[in-house]
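#onboarding

Welcome to the new folks! Below is a worked example of what a typical request in this channel looks like: someone posts a single protein sequence, and someone else replies with the predicted structure as tokens. Don't worry about understanding the tokens yet, we'll cover that in week two.

Example request:
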Amino acid sequence: MSNPADANATAVTSVAQLADYVASGCKPRDQFRIGTEHEKFVFRRDDLTPAPYLSEERDGRDIQTLLQRFAAREGQPILDAGNIVGLSLEGGSISLEPAGQFELSGTLLSTLHETEAEIRSHLDAARAIGSELGLGFLPLGFHPTARRDDMPWMPKGRYAVMRRYMPTVGSLGLDMMTRTCTVQVNLDFSSEDDMRRKLRVGLLLQPLATALFANSPLVEGRPSGYLSYRAHVWEDTDRQRSGAPPIMFEPDFGFRRYVEWLLDQVPMYFVYRDGRYIDVAGRRFRDFMTGRIPELAGIQPTVGDFADHMTTVFTDVRLKRFLEMRGADAGSPEMLVALPAFWVGLLYDPEALTAAEALVAGQGFAEYTAMRNAVPLEGLNAPWKRGTLRDLAAEIVPLAKAGLERRNRLDETGRTEGNYLRPLEAIAAGGPTQSERWLGRFNEKWEKSATAIFTDASI
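Example response:
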């Protein structure tokens, strides 16, 4: 999440200008990079409660101290109204989601070997600092025991706006903000056509990714009936900005049509000026451009304002000046690397991308919607064509593996990036997903007590 103070101050003059801004993300293939982001819950090890921003006991078992300890190792503090809410790192950042979910937004890297090393280094630091503070980290898609009211709120201005607005547009938006964690990868495109191809393949395969990475079966201490409760939460968060709009599946979709949708169909949350967030939730950016929002009288919209607006879109594949693949639950360290490996193998190798397009040929908005609705409950057993998503996984995972093998990026031992797909290969071959594994332990090893997951799943 970018620092609002760094927003581009160029005045907005036209829709074409904004389309060009998105298009400026196009890169030559040899400059394609991999940016991985992942979140995890922070909990107190003694009683398993969510860590607050600032401990009432002032004993350091809190998010503020955690950030300060990380800052002592590396990075520059990011402040919001004087409160430390993140760290600016060399090429990346650490930030806080609304309830203190601890997020690493990684550096743009050339290989998955570098991605794995970055994730491992970050998690090693988190373990070391957490051990000193009595804090643990839990990478699950949904908090397994806490109620919504148990979750703390971080002192970030934009979250105050969202907290007020979310209940007006869906019943589960506050759960999305406070009780979910995800892992995503940010990938590049070379042209508008390349963007369109990757976006559509990504959208049509996003339900499969959700099923493969399902890791949120427990809610408030009990099985919810869902394999990815996080994915279910998105079904009633804010349908104007989540899922995917039908235009993304239309033949003439491109940068300008996307901008028009953002201007006219996606409500704003805020505008940041002079160190404060101005609440304009529900207004349209087009009205901002034409001076028709009373709260913003006399304020000229900037490209930075538009960039902020783009971050409030939560489609399963989010288009900015790159593509964000957003459909997966957070998971184990191996699965955190498997997610970028899956998408890099499919989308960065031309042969794999063409083969994936062939597999989803004839699918569109209706099919995507049906799969997306079925996956939270059914996972890989959700229907796909004449079979199930597990059948699709058996074809798609090998395509991703072949794409990574053709990239031929070797580590110091001579292994290709395909090595990072081993967890998905096991699942595609019939093994349990993370959710299925936890449910098995809940019913057998844990004697139906969800608290054991804090030991078994923590990093």
